[in-house]
Design goal:
Strand order of the largest sheet: 4-3-2-1-5-6-8-11
Bound molecules: NADP nicotinamide-adenine-dinucleotide phosphate
Structural class: alpha/beta
Radius of gyration: 19 Å
Helix content: 25-40%
Strand content: 15-25%
Largest sheet: 8 strands, mixed
Distance between the termini: 36 Å
Order of helices and strands: EHEEEHEHEEHEEHEHEEHHHEHH
Oligomer: single chain
Number of strands: 13
Number of helices: 11
Length: 303
C-alpha cells in the first residue's frame, strides 16, 4: 500500500448528486479537496455542479479541467422500477455508456491519476448463502451479476492510464434513505414482517463506513476490487433489528415470496435469494469498520 496522499485533490464525482455522492462531496470538501459533481441538471459552478449527458456525448468543458481523481457513481436506480427489457437496457447503459464516455473524455487527461468506480456486491449469483464470496469468485449468470460484470469491464478501460478501484457496494444502511427507508416504513406502520422465508442473507454496510472506505481508497490510491460490506445479515434478523431500534412490534406472518414475485417480477430475486460476501480484502488494506454489527449500525442511526 502506498503512503497516505496528503495533497489536496481535484475530485470529479459523476452521479455525485445521489445518496452516496452527497456524503462523499461533503466529506472531501471538508477535508480541503476541490470537489466537482457531474449531473444531468444544468451547470451551477458556484454550487460545484457541472452538466453532462453521456447519451448525447455532452459535458461542460470546465468539469474536466485539472481533475486528478475521477469517482463514478452514475447509474439508474436498480430497485426503482420492474426489470423489463427496456429497463435492463437503461440500467446497463447508464453505467456502461457513461463510463465509456468518461474514458473518451479523460484518456488524454494530463492530470488524472486515479479512477474509482462504484460497483455492486450482488455479482456472485445466488448460491443459497452457503459461500462467503471473496472478490476472486466468478460472476453469476443472473441479471444483476451480468450488469455488474459489464460495468466493471467498462471501468477497467481506465487501467491503461491509472490505478482503478472498484467498490462492490453492499446494501447501504442510512436512516430515511434507500433500502432502510423502504424496510423501516412497514415496521413504523406496525406491520413489519420478514420477506419470503426471511432466511435469505444480504451483505450490508453503514453509510459512514462506505464513505470512509471511498476515502481510504482515495487516500492510499488503492487499485483493485473490494467487497464493501460490514457483514451479512438474514432478512429476518434485519427486520427484527429494525423493529427493535424503532421500538415497534413485529407482525408475525411473513410476506409471501409469491406475492413479491408477482409485484416485483424478476427484481424480487434481490430480496428473496441469498448472497454472502467476504470483506477480508478491504480489511487487509488497513480499513477498520466502525459498525460491524447491524444492531450497532441501527442504534447509531436511530439514537
Ligand atoms: N445505495 C446503495 O445501497 C447501493 C448499493 C450497491 C450499489 N450502489 C451503486 O452505487 C452508485 C451510487 O449509489 P447511490 O445510492 O448514491 O445512487 P443514487 O442516489 O440513485 O444516485 C445515482 C446518481 O446517478 C445519476 N444517474 C441516475 N440515472 C442516470 C442515468 N440514466 N444516466 C446518468 N446518470 C444517472 C443521478 O445523477 P443526476 O440525476 O444528477 O444526473 C444520481 O444522482 C449507483 O451506481 C448504485 O447502483 C448503491
Amino acid at each position: 500500500m502506498t503512503a497516505p496522499e496528503k495533497q489536496a485533490q481535484t475530485i470529479l464525482i459523476a452521479g455525485g448528486t445521489g445518496m452516496i455522492g452527497k456524503h462523499l462531496a461533503e466529506k472531501w470538501r471538508a477535508a480541503g479537496h476541490r470537489v466537482k459533481v457531474l449531473t444531468r441538471r444544468p451547470s451551477d459552478p458556484a454550487g460545484g455542479l457541472y452538466y453532462w449527458n453521456a447519451g448525447r456525448g455532452e459535458i461542460d468543458a470546465d468539469a474536466a479541467a485539472d481533475v486528478t481523481v475521477l469517482v463514478n457513481l452514475a447509474g439508474a436506480g436498480i430497485a426503482d422500477k420492474r426489470w423489463s427489457d427496456d429497463r435492463k437496457k437503461v440500467l446497463i447503459d447508464s453505467r456502461v455508456r457513461t463510463t465509456e464516455f468518461l474514458w473518451k473524455t479523460f484518456w488524454l487527461s494530463p492530470t488524472l491519476k486515479h479512477y474509482i468506480s462504484a460497483s455492486g456486491i450482488n455479482c456472485y449469483g445466488y448460491s443459497g448463502g452457503e459461500r462467503l464470496h471473496p472478490e476472486t469468485d466468478g460472476f453469476g449468470a443472473d441479471t444483476l451479476s451480468q450488469i455488474v460484470l459489464k460495468w466493471e469491464r467498462a471501468a477497467d478501460l481506465f487501467a491503461e492510464k491509472c490505478p482503478v478501484a472498484k467498490v462492490r457496494t453492499a446494501t447501504v444502511l442510512e436512516k430515511g434513505a434507500g433500502a432502510l427507508k423502504a424496510l423501516a416504513k412497514p415496521v413504523k406502520l406496525g406491520f413489519g414482517a420478514p420477506l419470503g422465508s426471511g432466511a435469505q442473507f444480504m451483505p450490508w454496510i453503514h453509510m459512514a463506513d462506505l464513505v470512509d472506505i471511498y476515502d481510504h481508497i482515495l487516500t492510499h490510491r488503492l487499485d483493485g476490487t473490494y467487497n464493501a460490506n460490514a457483514g451479512n445479515v438474514s432478512n429476518r434478523e434485519l427486520t427484527k433489528e429494525i423493529a427493535r431500534a424503532l421500538h415497534r412490534p413485529l407482525w408475525l406472518p411473513k410476506v409471501p415470496a409469491g406475492l413479491l414475485r408477482l409485484l416485483l417480477g424478476e427484481m424480487s430475486e434481490m430480496l428473496l435469494l441469498s448472497v454472502k460476501a467476504d470483506n477480508t480484502f478491504i480489511r487487509s488494506t488497513g480499513y477498520d469498520f466502525r459498525f460491524s454489527s447491524v444492531r450497532s449500525a441501527l442504534e447509531d442511526m436511530y439514537k
